[in-house]
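re: that chain from earlier
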Amino acid sequence: MMGRKILFITTDQQRYDTLGCNGGTLARTPVVDALAADGIRYERCHPQSVVCMPSRSTIITGQHVSTHGVWMNGVPLPADAPSVAEVLRVGGYRTAIIGKPHFEPFLDPFFRFAENTFANSGTFGPHRGFEHFESATHGAMGPLHYARWLAANHPEMVRMFYPVLDGALEVNAQGGGDTGAPQAWVNEIPRDCYHTDWVADRTIAWLDSLAADDDWFCWMSFPDPHHPWDPPKSEVGRIDWRDVPLPAGYVEDPAERERVLDGKPRHWRAWYDGRLVSNYEAPLEWVPAQMTADQVREVNALNAVECELIDEAIGRVLAAVRARGWDDDVDIVFTTDHGEFQGDFGLLFKGPYHVDALMRLPLIWRPAPSSRANAQASVVTRPVGHLDLAPTFCTIAGMAVPHWMEGKPLPVDDTDADGRGFERVLTEWDSELFGVSVHLRTITRAGVVCTTYQPGTSHDGSEGELYDLVDDPLQRMNRWDDPAYAALRRDLVADLWEHQPPMRSPLRAVEAPV
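^ sequence. v structure.
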Protein backbone atom coordinates (compact mmCIF):
# COMPACT_ATOMS: atom_id res chain seq x y z
CA MET A 1 0.00 0.00 0.00
CA MET A 2 2.81 2.41 0.92
CA GLY A 3 0.57 4.80 2.82
CA ARG A 4 0.96 6.46 6.19
CA LYS A 5 2.10 4.26 9.03
CA ILE A 6 1.05 4.84 12.65
CA LEU A 7 3.14 4.54 15.80
CA PHE A 8 0.82 5.00 18.76
CA ILE A 9 2.68 5.38 22.05
CA THR A 10 0.99 5.23 25.44
CA THR A 11 2.31 5.35 28.96
CA ASP A 12 0.36 4.50 32.10
CA GLN A 13 -0.68 7.07 34.69
CA GLN A 14 1.46 9.97 33.45
CA ARG A 15 0.73 13.57 34.37
CA TYR A 16 0.55 16.37 31.82
CA ASP A 17 3.32 18.31 33.56
CA THR A 18 5.90 15.49 33.47
CA LEU A 19 6.96 16.53 29.95
CA GLY A 20 9.30 19.42 29.24
CA CYS A 21 7.08 20.63 26.40
CA ASN A 22 4.22 20.95 28.91
CA GLY A 23 6.26 22.97 31.37
CA GLY A 24 7.78 20.10 33.32
CA THR A 25 11.18 20.81 34.86
CA LEU A 26 12.02 17.56 36.65
CA ALA A 27 12.23 14.83 33.99
CA ARG A 28 14.27 15.37 30.82
CA THR A 29 12.09 14.33 27.86
CA PRO A 30 13.88 15.63 24.74
CA VAL A 31 12.52 12.96 22.37
CA VAL A 32 8.85 13.62 23.09
CA ASP A 33 9.51 17.37 23.32
CA ALA A 34 10.95 17.25 19.79
CA LEU A 35 7.80 15.51 18.52
CA ALA A 36 5.75 18.31 20.07
CA ALA A 37 7.96 20.99 18.54
CA ASP A 38 7.45 19.46 15.11
CA GLY A 39 3.79 18.55 15.50
CA ILE A 40 0.61 19.31 17.42
CA ARG A 41 0.52 19.63 21.20
CA TYR A 42 -2.84 19.46 22.95
CA GLU A 43 -3.28 21.46 26.15
CA ARG A 44 -6.65 20.03 27.14
CA CYS A 45 -6.81 16.32 26.42
CA HIS A 46 -9.01 14.59 28.98
CA PRO A 47 -9.70 10.86 29.36
CA GLN A 48 -13.23 9.51 29.47
CA SER A 49 -12.25 7.68 32.68
CA VAL A 50 -9.38 8.20 35.13
CA VAL A 51 -8.63 4.48 35.58
CA CYS A 52 -6.96 1.98 33.27
CA MET A 53 -9.50 -0.47 31.86
CA PRO A 54 -12.32 1.97 31.06
CA SER A 55 -9.83 4.45 29.60
CA ARG A 56 -8.04 1.90 27.40
CA SER A 57 -11.39 0.53 26.26
CA THR A 58 -12.33 4.03 25.11
CA ILE A 59 -9.06 4.32 23.20
CA ILE A 60 -9.57 1.09 21.25
CA THR A 61 -13.32 1.58 20.59
CA GLY A 62 -13.57 5.34 20.18
CA GLN A 63 -16.58 5.24 22.52
CA HIS A 64 -17.63 6.76 25.81
CA VAL A 65 -17.40 4.52 28.87
CA SER A 66 -21.19 4.29 29.16
CA THR A 67 -21.33 3.02 25.57
CA HIS A 68 -18.61 0.34 25.62
CA GLY A 69 -19.69 -0.77 29.09
CA VAL A 70 -16.33 -1.11 30.91
CA TRP A 71 -17.61 1.03 33.74
CA MET A 72 -14.83 0.24 36.22
CA ASN A 73 -11.59 -1.70 36.49
CA GLY A 74 -12.26 -5.43 36.53
CA VAL A 75 -15.10 -5.29 33.99
CA PRO A 76 -13.78 -6.96 30.81
CA LEU A 77 -14.33 -5.30 27.47
CA PRO A 78 -16.77 -7.58 25.61
CA ALA A 79 -15.06 -9.99 23.25
CA ASP A 80 -17.17 -8.66 20.37
CA ALA A 81 -16.50 -4.98 21.15
CA PRO A 82 -15.49 -2.94 18.11
CA SER A 83 -11.78 -2.20 17.68
CA VAL A 84 -9.96 0.39 15.64
CA ALA A 85 -7.16 -2.17 15.22
CA GLU A 86 -9.60 -4.49 13.46
CA VAL A 87 -10.74 -1.66 11.18
CA LEU A 88 -7.14 -1.00 10.19
CA ARG A 89 -6.32 -4.71 9.82
CA VAL A 90 -9.25 -5.27 7.48
CA GLY A 91 -8.07 -2.22 5.55
CA GLY A 92 -4.71 -3.85 4.88
CA TYR A 93 -2.61 -2.67 7.84
CA ARG A 94 -0.25 -4.90 9.79
CA THR A 95 -1.23 -4.45 13.43
CA ALA A 96 0.45 -5.00 16.80
CA ILE A 97 0.11 -4.08 20.45
CA ILE A 98 3.26 -4.46 22.52
CA GLY A 99 3.32 -3.75 26.24
CA LYS A 100 0.37 -3.18 28.55
CA PRO A 101 -3.05 -4.00 27.02
CA HIS A 102 -5.52 -4.18 29.98
CA PHE A 103 -8.79 -4.48 28.13
CA GLU A 104 -9.42 -7.49 30.38
CA PRO A 105 -8.63 -8.05 34.09
CA PHE A 106 -5.08 -8.91 35.13
CA LEU A 107 -6.09 -10.72 38.33
CA ASP A 108 -7.24 -13.87 36.55
CA PRO A 109 -5.98 -17.03 38.33
CA PHE A 110 -8.29 -19.28 36.30
CA PHE A 111 -7.24 -17.85 32.90
CA ARG A 112 -10.75 -16.83 31.88
CA PHE A 113 -9.56 -13.98 29.66
CA ALA A 114 -7.69 -14.22 26.39
CA GLU A 115 -5.04 -11.63 27.26
CA ASN A 116 -3.75 -13.89 30.02
CA THR A 117 -3.47 -17.04 27.90
CA PHE A 118 -1.15 -16.15 25.03
CA ALA A 119 2.14 -16.13 26.94
CA ASN A 120 1.41 -19.44 28.68
CA SER A 121 0.77 -21.10 25.33
CA GLY A 122 3.74 -19.45 23.66
CA THR A 123 1.53 -17.58 21.18
CA PHE A 124 1.26 -13.92 20.19
CA GLY A 125 -2.32 -13.30 19.14
CA PRO A 126 -4.39 -12.49 17.24
CA HIS A 127 -6.41 -10.40 19.67
CA ARG A 128 -8.97 -7.62 19.11
CA GLY A 129 -7.68 -6.86 15.62
CA PHE A 130 -4.00 -7.01 16.59
CA GLU A 131 -2.28 -9.72 14.60
CA HIS A 132 0.64 -9.52 17.03
CA PHE A 133 0.03 -9.29 20.78
CA GLU A 134 2.96 -9.17 23.22
CA SER A 135 2.12 -8.14 26.76
CA ALA A 136 3.68 -6.67 29.89
CA THR A 137 2.60 -4.99 33.08
CA HIS A 138 4.22 -3.21 36.01
CA GLY A 139 6.13 -6.11 37.57
CA ALA A 140 7.39 -9.55 36.63
CA MET A 141 4.71 -11.77 38.16
CA GLY A 142 1.71 -13.15 36.30
CA PRO A 143 0.89 -14.68 32.95
CA LEU A 144 2.01 -11.98 30.49
CA HIS A 145 4.82 -12.25 27.95
CA TYR A 146 7.33 -10.07 29.81
CA ALA A 147 6.90 -12.03 33.03
CA ARG A 148 7.33 -15.34 31.19
CA TRP A 149 10.39 -14.01 29.35
CA LEU A 150 12.05 -12.82 32.55
CA ALA A 151 11.26 -16.05 34.40
CA ALA A 152 12.72 -18.12 31.56
CA ASN A 153 15.84 -16.05 30.97
CA HIS A 154 16.58 -14.30 34.28
CA PRO A 155 14.63 -16.08 37.02
CA GLU A 156 16.73 -14.44 39.74
CA MET A 157 15.33 -11.04 38.68
CA VAL A 158 11.64 -11.85 39.00
CA ARG A 159 11.46 -10.93 42.68
CA MET A 160 13.51 -7.77 42.39
CA PHE A 161 10.38 -5.74 41.67
CA TYR A 162 8.14 -4.22 44.34
CA PRO A 163 5.53 -6.78 45.51
CA VAL A 164 2.41 -5.06 44.20
CA LEU A 165 -0.01 -7.28 46.13
CA ASP A 166 0.26 -8.31 49.76
CA GLY A 167 -0.54 -11.75 51.16
CA ALA A 168 -4.26 -11.01 51.15
CA LEU A 169 -4.15 -10.00 47.46
CA GLU A 170 -4.78 -6.40 48.42
CA VAL A 171 -2.67 -3.60 46.96
CA ASN A 172 0.47 -3.37 49.07
CA ALA A 173 0.89 -0.40 51.39
CA GLN A 174 4.52 -1.26 52.13
CA GLY A 175 6.90 1.67 51.96
CA GLY A 176 10.42 1.69 50.62
CA GLY A 177 13.14 3.81 49.09
CA ASP A 178 14.85 6.31 51.39
CA THR A 179 11.71 7.87 52.87
CA GLY A 180 9.36 4.92 53.29
CA ALA A 181 7.03 6.30 50.63
CA PRO A 182 4.30 3.80 49.71
CA GLN A 183 5.19 1.71 46.67
CA ALA A 184 8.67 3.25 46.38
CA TRP A 185 11.32 0.58 45.97
CA VAL A 186 14.99 -0.13 45.32
CA ASN A 187 14.95 -2.42 42.27
CA GLU A 188 18.20 -4.28 41.60
CA ILE A 189 17.18 -5.31 38.08
CA PRO A 190 19.56 -4.25 35.27
CA ARG A 191 18.12 -1.58 33.05
CA ASP A 192 18.20 -3.70 29.89
CA CYS A 193 15.95 -6.29 31.56
CA TYR A 194 13.42 -3.75 32.90
CA HIS A 195 10.04 -3.68 31.18
CA THR A 196 10.51 -0.21 29.65
CA ASP A 197 13.49 -1.33 27.55
CA TRP A 198 11.82 -4.69 26.91
CA VAL A 199 8.77 -2.99 25.36
CA ALA A 200 11.05 -0.95 23.09
CA ASP A 201 13.13 -4.02 22.17
CA ARG A 202 10.06 -6.06 21.26
CA THR A 203 8.58 -3.17 19.27
CA ILE A 204 11.79 -2.86 17.25
CA ALA A 205 11.81 -6.63 16.68
CA TRP A 206 8.25 -6.55 15.35
CA LEU A 207 8.96 -3.59 13.08
CA ASP A 208 12.04 -5.38 11.77
CA SER A 209 9.82 -8.33 10.79
CA LEU A 210 7.79 -6.19 8.38
CA ALA A 211 8.34 -5.68 4.69
CA ALA A 212 9.50 -2.26 3.57
CA ASP A 213 6.21 -1.51 1.84
CA ASP A 214 3.90 -2.70 4.64
CA ASP A 215 1.54 -0.21 6.18
CA TRP A 216 1.38 -0.74 9.92
CA PHE A 217 -0.31 0.35 13.12
CA CYS A 218 1.79 -0.33 16.21
CA TRP A 219 0.51 0.44 19.69
CA MET A 220 3.57 0.60 21.95
CA SER A 221 2.23 0.63 25.51
CA PHE A 222 4.67 1.30 28.38
CA PRO A 223 3.57 0.16 31.88
CA ASP A 224 5.39 3.08 33.58
CA PRO A 225 5.30 5.62 35.24
CA HIS A 226 2.35 3.97 37.04
CA HIS A 227 3.14 2.88 40.59
CA PRO A 228 4.98 1.01 42.00
CA TRP A 229 7.83 3.45 41.58
CA ASP A 230 10.63 0.91 41.23
CA PRO A 231 12.90 1.85 38.33
CA PRO A 232 16.31 0.14 38.03
CA LYS A 233 18.59 1.11 40.91
CA SER A 234 21.31 2.05 38.42
CA GLU A 235 19.12 4.89 37.11
CA VAL A 236 17.81 6.38 40.36
CA GLY A 237 20.87 8.62 40.76
CA ARG A 238 19.72 10.69 37.79
CA ILE A 239 17.56 12.76 40.17
CA ASP A 240 18.28 13.26 43.87
CA TRP A 241 14.90 13.42 45.59
CA ARG A 242 16.39 15.78 48.20
CA ASP A 243 16.72 18.41 45.48
CA VAL A 244 13.18 18.00 44.16
CA PRO A 245 10.86 20.96 44.78
CA LEU A 246 7.44 20.14 46.14
CA PRO A 247 4.81 20.20 43.39
CA ALA A 248 2.61 23.26 43.03
CA GLY A 249 -0.46 21.17 43.82
CA TYR A 250 0.88 20.04 47.19
CA VAL A 251 -0.52 22.18 50.00
CA GLU A 252 2.33 22.32 52.53
CA ASP A 253 0.45 23.61 55.55
CA PRO A 254 -1.68 20.74 57.00
CA ALA A 255 -4.43 23.05 58.26
CA GLU A 256 -4.74 24.76 54.88
CA ARG A 257 -4.65 21.36 53.15
CA GLU A 258 -7.57 20.17 55.27
CA ARG A 259 -9.46 23.39 54.58
CA VAL A 260 -9.07 22.84 50.83
CA LEU A 261 -10.17 19.21 51.10
CA ASP A 262 -13.18 20.15 53.23
CA GLY A 263 -14.38 22.42 50.42
CA LYS A 264 -14.72 19.39 48.15
CA PRO A 265 -17.27 16.56 48.30
CA ARG A 266 -16.92 14.51 51.46
CA HIS A 267 -15.12 11.47 50.00
CA TRP A 268 -12.01 13.62 49.46
CA ARG A 269 -11.45 14.22 53.19
CA ALA A 270 -12.60 10.70 54.06
CA TRP A 271 -9.85 9.18 51.89
CA TYR A 272 -7.25 11.62 53.19
CA ASP A 273 -8.08 10.61 56.78
CA GLY A 274 -8.03 6.90 55.94
CA ARG A 275 -11.77 6.38 56.48
CA LEU A 276 -12.75 5.48 52.90
CA VAL A 277 -11.05 3.85 49.92
CA SER A 278 -12.93 3.87 46.62
CA ASN A 279 -10.27 2.58 44.21
CA TYR A 280 -8.60 -0.83 44.47
CA GLU A 281 -5.19 0.55 43.48
CA ALA A 282 -5.05 2.86 46.51
CA PRO A 283 -3.77 0.65 49.35
CA LEU A 284 -6.39 -0.05 52.00
CA GLU A 285 -3.87 0.24 54.81
CA TRP A 286 -2.36 3.56 53.75
CA VAL A 287 -3.49 6.88 55.27
CA PRO A 288 -2.66 9.85 53.00
CA ALA A 289 -2.68 12.29 55.92
CA GLN A 290 0.44 10.56 57.23
CA MET A 291 2.46 11.19 54.05
CA THR A 292 5.48 13.45 54.55
CA ALA A 293 6.81 16.14 52.25
CA ASP A 294 9.98 14.11 51.72
CA GLN A 295 7.91 11.13 50.60
CA VAL A 296 6.23 13.36 48.03
CA ARG A 297 9.68 14.45 46.84
CA GLU A 298 10.92 10.87 46.50
CA VAL A 299 7.82 9.69 44.63
CA ASN A 300 8.18 12.58 42.20
CA ALA A 301 11.87 11.84 41.69
CA LEU A 302 11.30 8.14 40.99
CA ASN A 303 8.41 8.96 38.69
CA ALA A 304 10.61 11.39 36.77
CA VAL A 305 13.32 8.74 36.36
CA GLU A 306 10.73 6.40 34.85
CA CYS A 307 9.60 9.16 32.47
CA GLU A 308 13.20 9.71 31.34
CA LEU A 309 13.67 5.99 30.66
CA ILE A 310 10.50 5.95 28.56
CA ASP A 311 11.66 8.97 26.57
CA GLU A 312 14.99 7.29 25.82
CA ALA A 313 13.26 4.03 24.85
CA ILE A 314 11.04 5.96 22.42
CA GLY A 315 14.19 7.48 20.96
CA ARG A 316 15.56 4.01 20.22
CA VAL A 317 12.34 3.00 18.47
CA LEU A 318 12.29 6.17 16.39
CA ALA A 319 15.90 5.49 15.36
CA ALA A 320 14.81 2.04 14.18
CA VAL A 321 11.97 3.61 12.20
CA ARG A 322 14.42 6.00 10.55
CA ALA A 323 16.80 3.14 9.78
CA ARG A 324 14.00 1.45 7.82
CA GLY A 325 13.45 4.64 5.81
CA TRP A 326 9.94 5.09 7.15
CA ASP A 327 10.17 8.30 9.14
CA ASP A 328 8.71 10.54 6.44
CA ASP A 329 5.55 8.43 6.29
CA VAL A 330 4.94 7.71 9.98
CA ASP A 331 2.37 9.49 12.13
CA ILE A 332 3.40 9.40 15.78
CA VAL A 333 0.82 9.88 18.54
CA PHE A 334 1.85 10.00 22.22
CA THR A 335 -0.48 10.03 25.22
CA THR A 336 -1.34 8.22 28.46
CA ASP A 337 -4.47 6.60 29.86
CA HIS A 338 -4.93 8.87 32.92
CA GLY A 339 -2.97 10.93 35.42
CA GLU A 340 -1.63 10.59 38.97
CA PHE A 341 -1.93 12.75 42.09
CA GLN A 342 1.81 12.69 42.94
CA GLY A 343 1.23 14.76 46.05
CA ASP A 344 -1.48 17.13 44.86
CA PHE A 345 -3.84 17.86 47.78
CA GLY A 346 -1.65 15.54 49.92
CA LEU A 347 -2.71 12.47 47.93
CA LEU A 348 -1.16 9.76 45.75
CA PHE A 349 -2.51 7.32 43.16
CA LYS A 350 -5.99 7.94 41.68
CA GLY A 351 -9.71 7.45 42.18
CA PRO A 352 -13.01 9.33 41.75
CA TYR A 353 -11.39 12.75 41.83
CA HIS A 354 -11.92 14.70 38.60
CA VAL A 355 -9.18 17.32 38.80
CA ASP A 356 -6.23 18.10 36.53
CA ALA A 357 -3.83 15.75 38.33
CA LEU A 358 -5.86 12.84 36.95
CA MET A 359 -7.68 14.38 33.97
CA ARG A 360 -5.27 16.69 32.17
CA LEU A 361 -3.18 14.43 29.97
CA PRO A 362 -0.22 14.77 27.64
CA LEU A 363 -1.21 14.35 24.00
CA ILE A 364 1.12 14.97 21.06
CA TRP A 365 0.57 14.16 17.40
CA ARG A 366 3.46 14.41 14.97
CA PRO A 367 1.81 13.92 11.56
CA ALA A 368 3.85 12.19 8.88
CA PRO A 369 6.06 14.85 7.25
CA SER A 370 5.04 13.61 3.79
CA SER A 371 1.41 14.45 4.56
CA ARG A 372 1.78 18.11 5.50
CA ALA A 373 3.49 20.09 2.78
CA ASN A 374 3.59 23.52 4.43
CA ALA A 375 1.85 22.74 7.72
CA GLN A 376 3.10 24.49 10.84
CA ALA A 377 3.53 23.08 14.31
CA SER A 378 0.63 24.13 16.51
CA VAL A 379 -0.87 24.08 19.99
CA VAL A 380 -4.54 23.18 20.40
CA THR A 381 -6.17 24.72 23.47
CA ARG A 382 -9.70 23.42 22.84
CA PRO A 383 -10.82 20.29 24.72
CA VAL A 384 -10.33 16.88 23.12
CA GLY A 385 -10.65 13.34 24.46
CA HIS A 386 -9.44 9.79 24.13
CA LEU A 387 -12.49 8.92 22.09
CA ASP A 388 -11.04 11.14 19.33
CA LEU A 389 -7.99 8.89 18.87
CA ALA A 390 -9.61 6.00 16.99
CA PRO A 391 -11.27 8.30 14.42
CA THR A 392 -7.90 10.02 13.97
CA PHE A 393 -6.21 6.71 13.18
CA CYS A 394 -8.89 5.93 10.60
CA THR A 395 -8.41 9.31 8.97
CA ILE A 396 -4.62 8.90 8.88
CA ALA A 397 -5.13 5.56 7.14
CA GLY A 398 -7.49 7.11 4.59
CA MET A 399 -10.46 5.12 5.87
CA ALA A 400 -13.99 6.21 6.69
CA VAL A 401 -14.71 6.67 10.39
CA PRO A 402 -17.13 3.87 11.42
CA HIS A 403 -20.56 4.92 12.67
CA TRP A 404 -19.98 3.33 16.09
CA MET A 405 -17.11 5.67 16.96
CA GLU A 406 -18.35 8.59 19.06
CA GLY A 407 -15.35 10.89 18.69
CA LYS A 408 -14.03 13.00 15.83
CA PRO A 409 -10.62 13.13 14.17
CA LEU A 410 -8.37 15.36 16.26
CA PRO A 411 -8.15 19.02 15.24
CA VAL A 412 -4.84 20.31 13.91
CA ASP A 413 -5.24 23.79 15.38
CA ASP A 414 -7.79 25.89 17.26
CA THR A 415 -9.41 27.18 14.06
CA ASP A 416 -10.02 23.61 12.96
CA ALA A 417 -11.29 22.75 16.45
CA ASP A 418 -13.76 25.65 16.46
CA GLY A 419 -14.95 24.81 12.97
CA ARG A 420 -15.70 21.21 13.91
CA GLY A 421 -17.28 21.79 17.29
CA PHE A 422 -14.65 20.81 19.84
CA GLU A 423 -16.39 22.61 22.69
CA ARG A 424 -16.54 20.09 25.53
CA VAL A 425 -15.08 16.83 26.78
CA LEU A 426 -16.84 14.42 29.14
CA THR A 427 -15.37 12.19 31.85
CA GLU A 428 -17.28 9.66 33.93
CA TRP A 429 -16.71 7.45 36.96
CA ASP A 430 -18.68 4.59 38.45
CA SER A 431 -17.37 2.20 41.08
CA GLU A 432 -18.69 -0.37 43.55
CA LEU A 433 -15.80 -1.46 45.76
CA PHE A 434 -15.27 -2.37 49.42
CA GLY A 435 -18.95 -1.60 49.96
CA VAL A 436 -18.44 1.93 48.65
CA SER A 437 -20.26 3.24 45.57
CA VAL A 438 -19.28 6.49 43.83
CA HIS A 439 -20.77 7.95 40.65
CA LEU A 440 -19.46 11.10 38.92
CA ARG A 441 -20.17 12.82 35.60
CA THR A 442 -17.91 15.68 34.48
CA ILE A 443 -17.88 18.24 31.69
CA THR A 444 -14.91 20.44 30.81
CA ARG A 445 -15.85 23.44 28.66
CA ALA A 446 -14.50 26.94 28.10
CA GLY A 447 -11.99 26.82 30.94
CA VAL A 448 -14.38 25.40 33.54
CA VAL A 449 -14.59 21.88 35.00
CA CYS A 450 -17.96 20.88 36.42
CA THR A 451 -18.67 17.54 38.14
CA THR A 452 -22.08 16.37 39.27
CA TYR A 453 -22.40 13.54 41.79
CA GLN A 454 -25.09 10.88 41.65
CA PRO A 455 -26.33 9.27 44.86
CA GLY A 456 -23.90 6.76 46.38
CA THR A 457 -22.32 5.67 49.64
CA SER A 458 -20.96 9.10 50.56
CA HIS A 459 -23.10 11.38 48.40
CA ASP A 460 -26.81 12.14 48.26
CA GLY A 461 -26.81 13.58 44.74
CA SER A 462 -26.62 17.22 45.77
CA GLU A 463 -22.84 17.54 45.90
CA GLY A 464 -20.57 18.58 43.09
CA GLU A 465 -17.46 20.43 42.04
CA LEU A 466 -16.96 23.46 39.82
CA TYR A 467 -13.54 24.95 39.16
CA ASP A 468 -12.62 28.05 37.18
CA LEU A 469 -9.35 26.98 35.56
CA VAL A 470 -8.41 30.55 34.68
CA ASP A 471 -8.74 32.03 38.18
CA ASP A 472 -7.97 28.82 40.07
CA PRO A 473 -5.67 26.57 38.01
CA LEU A 474 -4.78 24.44 41.06
CA GLN A 475 -8.49 23.76 41.67
CA ARG A 476 -8.46 24.62 45.34
CA MET A 477 -11.68 26.64 45.40
CA ASN A 478 -14.84 24.62 44.72
CA ARG A 479 -17.45 26.99 43.26
CA TRP A 480 -20.29 24.45 43.14
CA ASP A 481 -22.31 26.28 45.82
CA ASP A 482 -21.09 29.79 44.94
CA PRO A 483 -24.12 31.94 43.98
CA ALA A 484 -21.98 33.85 41.50
CA TYR A 485 -21.52 30.63 39.51
CA ALA A 486 -25.09 29.31 39.85
CA ALA A 487 -26.21 30.18 36.32
CA LEU A 488 -23.02 28.74 34.81
CA ARG A 489 -23.41 25.60 36.88
CA ARG A 490 -26.98 25.07 35.62
CA ASP A 491 -25.84 25.60 32.04
CA LEU A 492 -22.91 23.18 32.35
CA VAL A 493 -24.96 20.45 34.04
CA ALA A 494 -27.63 20.72 31.33
CA ASP A 495 -24.93 20.60 28.63
CA LEU A 496 -23.39 17.55 30.32
CA TRP A 497 -26.60 15.54 30.36
CA GLU A 498 -27.46 16.58 26.82
CA HIS A 499 -24.25 14.97 25.56
CA GLN A 500 -23.69 12.13 28.06
CA PRO A 501 -24.67 8.76 26.50
CA PRO A 502 -26.90 6.47 28.59
CA MET A 503 -25.18 3.65 30.45
CA ARG A 504 -25.04 0.39 28.50
CA SER A 505 -27.65 -2.04 29.80
CA PRO A 506 -27.57 -4.57 31.33
CA LEU A 507 -24.61 -3.45 33.44
CA ARG A 508 -21.66 -5.77 32.90
CA ALA A 509 -20.39 -7.67 35.93
CA VAL A 510 -17.12 -6.93 37.71
CA GLU A 511 -14.94 -10.04 37.19
CA ALA A 512 -11.85 -9.04 39.22
CA PRO A 513 -10.54 -6.07 41.23
CA VAL A 514 -8.21 -4.90 38.46
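The radius of gyration is 21 Å.
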